[in-house]
Amino acid sequence: MAAGPALKQSPEIREPVNIIEQIASLDSLAAIDAELKDLDEELARDSGELEQKKTELESLEEKMASHNASIDEMDRMRGELISEVRQMSVQVERSREKLARCRTEREANAAQREVEEIRKLYRDRELEIEKLVGLVDQARMDLEATTATRDEIAKELGSSEGEVSSRLAAIRKAAKEKRDARKKFVSEVQPQLYRRYELIRKRRGTALAWTTEGDCSSCHMRLPPMVFQQLMQRTDFGQCPSCHRILFYRPAQELAESQSSGP
Ligand SMILES: [Zn+2]
To answer: Residues 6 or more apart from 209 whose CB is under 8 A from it?
Structure first.
């Protein structure tokens, strides 16, 4: 009658059961952590793409503003040059009249020089205006091209931002659910084992590995026969001598089951 409960409490019986439970909990924890890692990576990638597009849009808008400012400046300069040219043509007229009224050759020569000087200045200004017109045309073409690129990206962003944002929200939600589900498995793992698991996970990305035929499932290092023999007894976890991940023995049949039920 008393044999039942007494047997259950016996450590020789309880410990092997315990390690198998620990393996199951740690295995579930590792699966959730792998999913969380993927979700976090996806989140970083998607929000990165969105940010990149926004930054690109901002820099194109800055470029447009600078094109506009330089076009304004060149238009202003052209306006000034045009009014200078007008004044000069008035001056040329006056000098011509003066030339017509000249009585001595000396006066006539001086007036002629004046007319030529003003004409030269007039031609210089006209060349400057021509040059400015060319530059303004170029700047307007650049502005048009920049505006077209900006519009395209704004359109892309407009149609994808909502989509990306809702995808990001879905990923965040999924990650939160996984983090909540994770707590259950954390509570099932012995605290010391969990600390060891976290320490290795933070360093290596994953912390759990198994062996079925004597090599580490993670780094594929062949384990020393003693280590493998010990793991096969399933009395305690081991450690891979090469990658330092927590090791346990997974029989071939169990491996086949976990692979066929996997994603
Ligand atoms: Zn290893």
So the answer is: 216, 217, 218, 219, 240, 243, 245, 246, 247
Residue 215 Cα to ligand 1 midpoint, Å, equals: 8
Give which of 108, 121, 115, 120 is closest to 92, Cα–Cα. 115
Q: What is the pLDDT of residues 244-260, one digit of tens each?
A: 999 999 998 887 887 76
Q: Which residues are within 5 Å of ligand 1 (an ion), measured at CB?
A: 216, 218-219, 221, 240, 242-243
Ligand 1 centroid from CA 128, angstroms: 75
Please tell me the distance between residue 217's alpha carbon and the centre of ligand 1 in angstroms.
7
In angstroms, how far is the first alpha carbon of the chain from the final one? 47
State the pLDDT at residue 159.
82
CA atoms of 16 and 32, how far apart (whole Å): 25
Tell me the domain boundaries of the chain.
38-182, 190-263
Indicate whether 3 pLDDT > 60. no
Q: What is the average per-residue pLDDT within 229-256? A: 93
Question: CB atoms < 10 A from the CB of 149, how many?
Answer: 15
CATH number for the segment(s) 38-182:
1.10.287.1490
